[in-house]
């Protein structure tokens, strides 16, 4: 049988960039907002696509591993919200700072932790990004401060990081994220006050995925205009399903902070396909139809794919090849995460303190002692 | 309000001495966040009673982060302020938090008594790369202490985790921290006239506790009395007694260890009531005599 030669597109056939209309942001206490057009190069598009797809498949793999009981405890998945963490990351610098709550796997990846280290942390192995000490809710890397389990507590922390940024004078900002559920926490309002008073370079970001655990925003908040809740802090409401919209808004917001004007607030309207966590099927407080509707009309990855294909920035085959490569990477990472050994028992007492001479830690009874090394 | 930072703002200005609004949870979280980027903040609570509003930030954000991050993120911060009973400030303003903070791995907890303790421990705490809770005492702020030349020198630090024997003795070991150390010394002076020589240990650090110094003393004196201002249940004295039982010193005890503590009630206001809720010199003397069976 003869082989059929299929003519493949070569790179000269693609456009190098395209300009897109993006949704205008609702503004609070701002005369102007981010641009309503965004330019995206082919390289940028491919990068955004690959990153979002990697996060998507990583989260789906986590779902699988959790159901197989290889991941235990809490597991809050980010699929559906990929445009948020990717749009933010590409708008800031590696020297900027990011802190978020527990739905953190996407940010952990975007900030530079490899998939295998994320999955191995979820499965509690020594190859995990924090050696199995933290798990799903406590992953960290350079300029990424977690991964925080207590709802709302990360917001004052983020403003504190911003305070240090201002003090050190290196023109860095801190992205301080929280959800629609956390948005009603008192400590967030305390933080708004101090951030505004001291003009901290803090970008407050509310990822509004419409549900705080099982409570819809309408049932939780007297005002669901989260971008206005900072009152004296200017705000913008952003389409969180469009990576370009998020990117442009983040560029606008970080520029505002870097100019020394003080804090700013962004509300990203987004959606999570999974329930609040793996113990929540996610259909008792919302309909399957609603989830399906978002998937078919607003999926961030599909939106980007359509834009790229329709504007000749990439071909469907090329994106499919990326999908295949991503799947392979996730499979290998999962393989690592399920075969890497658990952390050695001797490490149980380590890292209680930082930069401390070794000391002994008491175990479950007085005869069991662990060594603690920093 | 208590002027511990008097003069600092004048010297260092707004950038380094910040006067926040009364939002403990918020400003404590801000301080912890700043610590994560190595700003080395000193976070003052007007009294530790208000730290309860911010306790999540102290424990979950500060104490546990180094461990959860396998050492990737350090939190070099000092939380300081007056702790425990004052004079006539009633129940909500008089609680001792030594046991609460001393309970948590990841924190260091220090409790100065003398001026040299205050200086040496504060300097050591600031230089420590870990979250340190420094429990000061309001009534001690106005008490003058002798300070040696060495203690007055620029880099004088006291090691965290090391107790000090304030008075040598042979008949009974008195272990205490903060203001009650002074009461122990007073009790020791009275008892000395009756021929009882007390060894008075100033713990200086609650966590990590220097139990070795206490054990060595008990091996010598065979009797132990712990003295603290906080409530009896699950307190500092309870921990000392438990550890003595678990260790080598147990076999040297000639009588059960005894605790002198604050009374097990919320602090009342009226002077006669308040006075009888805190351990007085007479209570310490009574406990010593009971232990020695004299």
TrEMBL record, chain A:
Chief location: mitochondrion
Domain annotation Dehydrogenase E1 component: ranges: 51-345
Keywords for this protein: Carbohydrate metabolism, Glucose metabolism, Magnesium, Metal-binding, Mitochondrion, Oxidoreductase, Phosphoprotein, Pyruvate, Thiamine pyrophosphate, Transit peptide
Location relative to the cell: Mitochondrion matrix
Top-level taxon: Eukaryota
GO molecular function: metal ion binding; pyruvate dehydrogenase (acetyl-transferring) activity
Coiled-coil portions: none
One cellular component term from this protein's GO annotations in UniProt: mitochondrial matrix
Protein's GO biological process: glucose metabolic process; pyruvate decarboxylation to acetyl-CoA
Transmembrane segments: none
UniProt xrefs under Pfam families: E1_dh
CDD domains according to UniProt: TPP_E1_PDC_ADC_BCADC
UniProt catalytic activity: N(6)-[(R)-lipoyl]-L-lysyl-[protein] + pyruvate + H(+) = N(6)-[(R)-S(8)-acetyldihydrolipoyl]-L-lysyl-[protein] + CO2
Function according to Swiss-Prot or TrEMBL: The pyruvate dehydrogenase complex catalyzes the overall conversion of pyruvate to acetyl-CoA and CO(2), and thereby links the glycolytic pathway to the tricarboxylic cycle.
Stated name of the protein: Pyruvate dehydrogenase E1 component subunit alpha
Automatic annotation (TrEMBL), chain B:
Membrane spanning residue stretches: none
Self-association and partners: Heterotetramer of two PDHA1 and two PDHB subunits. The heterotetramer interacts with DLAT, and is part of the multimeric pyruvate dehydrogenase complex that contains multiple copies of pyruvate dehydrogenase (E1), dihydrolipoamide acetyltransferase (DLAT, E2) and lipoamide dehydrogenase (DLD, E3). These subunits are bound to an inner core composed of about 48 DLAT and 12 PDHX molecules. Interacts with DLAT.
EC number(s) per entry: 1.2.4.1
The reaction(s) this protein catalyses: N(6)-[(R)-lipoyl]-L-lysyl-[protein] + pyruvate + H(+) = N(6)-[(R)-S(8)-acetyldihydrolipoyl]-L-lysyl-[protein] + CO2
Function according to Swiss-Prot or TrEMBL: The pyruvate dehydrogenase complex catalyzes the overall conversion of pyruvate to acetyl-CoA and CO(2), and thereby links the glycolytic pathway to the tricarboxylic cycle.
Pfam family, one: Transket_pyr
GO terms classed as biological process: glucose metabolic process; pyruvate decarboxylation to acetyl-CoA
InterPro entries with a match to the protein in the record: PDHB_mito-type (IPR027110), THDP-binding (IPR029061), Transketo_C/PFOR_II (IPR009014), Transketolase-like_Pyr-bd (IPR005475), Transketolase_C (IPR033248)
SMART domains, per database record: Transket_pyr (SM00861)
Keyword Lipid biosynthesis annotated: no
Protein name according to UniProt: Pyruvate dehydrogenase E1 component subunit beta
Residue ranges constituting the Transketolase-like pyrimidine-binding domain according to the UniProt record: 1-143
Cofactor dependency: thiamine diphosphate
